[in-house]
Automatic annotation (TrEMBL):
E.C. number: 2.6.1.44
Domain Aminotransferase class V, chain residue ranges per copy: 79-396
Keywords tagged on the record: Aminotransferase, Pyridoxal phosphate, Transferase
PANTHER family, per database record: ALANINE--GLYOXYLATE AMINOTRANSFERASE 1, AMINOTRANSFERASE CLASS V
One cellular-component annotation, GO: peroxisome
Pfam families in the cross-refs: Aminotran_5 (PF00266)
Species for this entry: Trametes coccinea (strain BRFM310)
Residue sites binding substrate per the record: 405
Protein name, per record: alanine--glyoxylate transaminase
């Protein structure tokens, strides 16, 4: 079980905002905040939350979560999430939200793209793209490298887009020459692709895709589904010419689930502003959200729908770690590559084959592995869980029963002192040997 104290101080929130108040502590603190000497051991009589601070907070012991999202989060992030309730229009909260808008640009290496940080999950990013950037009847090309390509295409069709799909063979990404041919045969408003398809662990060449679209069809927008890649794979939005990056809080960004995060280039915003037909969604409408994002960034509050205040505090803590602390973003990407190489090498030594057919298309934040012939999820995953390591089963409809997935993103990779990767490798080795022995599998 994990049990650790925080290794660094809670990052100072913007403009002196502090995670203290006189209200009762949230339940997530109960097990870890030391009660006052004479306090009875009941929730209601615990000392007020002002006694809670980062030096006494550590999260409860738990199994190591190494699925490809949600991932482990740091004590700092969890503690920030336990912020006492705040008004979403409070002067203390406004700069925290504003900082998040500014810092997510840094993560994506963009100077002027427009972030949208909204309550929701990654899926809401597809709705935002479909409802704001595409008008009913317009052509969209989806580069489909797995389960999440199917879903993005489905979402686009729901809003009336005319969708063509280029399907990569299982375990592969769409080849750039096929993209070029498709772009030459038809005018597309938008090309979408899944940077890392979480169902297969396939990594697409974001830079290469954007380069082909820019060269062959300069007016076509490029949208990158980065739910399983932001902060674990490098994304140079401005330099590569990506128009939309959509993601969620619970993977590389290291925050609990609940935030839809989308960043749109100025080119995409112009396309949005010049659309002829009304936006085809209410909640996902940028007409509603753009004034809100602009207000918070410029230091005032505005209301369309209540933002997830506590998650924004958690996001702020995580973005601070990502952009203002060591290791740098470049070092983080290198650490993800290193951890990924370790997991993949260990798996290979155990005789496990990867789903991605070529190391060039294998993600750095996760590993997808075929079960040896004769084994299935029920033989291996409970044995790993018995060793306090939680991995994920297969997801892609074609081969769901035949493989499993390990996530290696965020703090599990960046903070080597935790020993998470060692623990995963050791547990895999033991569990696999045990599973094989139980099924008389020799492969
Ligand atoms: C690549 C990718 N896109 C989109 C999604 C959908 O995100 P969510 O489950 O947060 O709605 C996921 C979820 O895992 C994903 O991995």
């Amino acid at each position: 079980m994990l049990s650790r104290s925080s290794s660094s101080l809670f990052p100072v929130l913007a403009h002196g905002t502090r995670a203290v108040s006189s209200s009762s502590p949230p339940s997530s603190l109960i097990r870890t905040v030391r009660p006052l000497r004479h306090s009875p051991p009941s929730y209601h009589h615990l000392r007020p939350a002002r006694s809670a601070n980062m030096s006494t907070f550590k999260q409860a012991p738990h199994k190591l979560l190494v699925i490809p999202g949600p991932i482990e989060v740091t004590d700092e992030v969890l503690f920030a999430n336990a912020h006492p309730s705040m008004s979403h229009v409070s002067p203390d909260f406004i700069p925290v939200f504003g900082d998040c808008i500014r810092m997510i640009r840094e993560v994506l290496f963009t100077a002027d793209a427009q972030p949208f940080i909204i309550s929701g999950s990654g899926t809401l990013g597809w709705d935002q793209v479909s409802a704001n950037l595409v008008e009913p009847g317009e052509n969209v090309l989806v580069l489909n490298s797995g389960y999440f390509g199917d879903s993005f295409a489905d979402c686009l069709r729901t809003y009336g887009a005319v969708v063509d799909e280029l399907h990569a063979p299982f375990g592969s990404a769409v080849e750039l020459p096929a993209l070029e041919t498709a772009l030459k045969s038809k005018q597309y408003k938008l090309v979408t692709f899944t940077h890392v398809d979480t169902s297969t662990g396939v990594l697409s060449d974001a830079k290469g895709i954007a380069e082909v679209v820019r060269r062959v069809s300069p007016n076509t927008l490029v949208a990158l589904d980065g739910v399983c890649s932001v902060a674990s794979e490098e994304i140079q939005m401005d330099a590569w010419g990506i128009d939309v990056v959509l993601t969620a809080s619970q993977k590389g960004l290291g925050v609990p689930p609940g935030l839809s995060i989308l960043v749109a280039s100025q080119k995409a915003m112009k396309v949005f502003e010049e659309r002829k037909s009304p936006v085809t969604s209410y909640y996902a409408s940028w007409k509603k959200w753009l004034p809100i994002m602009r207000a918070y960034e410029s230091g005032s509050a505005a209301y369309f729908a209540t933002p997830p205040v506590n998650l924004i505090y958690a996001f702020h803590a995580s973005l601070t770690q990502l952009t203002k602390r060591s290791p740098s973003l470049a070092e983080r990407f290198a650490l993800h590559r290193e951890a990924s190489a370790r997991v993949k090498k260990a798996a290979e030594e155990l005789g496990l084959r990867q789903l991605p057919v070529d190391p060039k298309v294998a993600a750095n934040g996760m590993t997808a592995l075929w079960f040896p012939e004769g084994l299935k999820a029920a033989d291996l995953l409970p044995r790993l869980a018995g060793r306090d390591v939680v991995v994920a089963a297969g997801l892609h409809k074609d081969n769901k029963e035949k493989y499993f997935r390990i996530g290696h993103m965020g703090v599990s990779v960046v903070d080597k002192s935790r020993g998470d990767i060692d623990k995963v490798i050791a547990a895999l080795k033991e569990s696999l040997a045990e599973a094989k022995a139980s099924k008389n599998v020799n492969a």
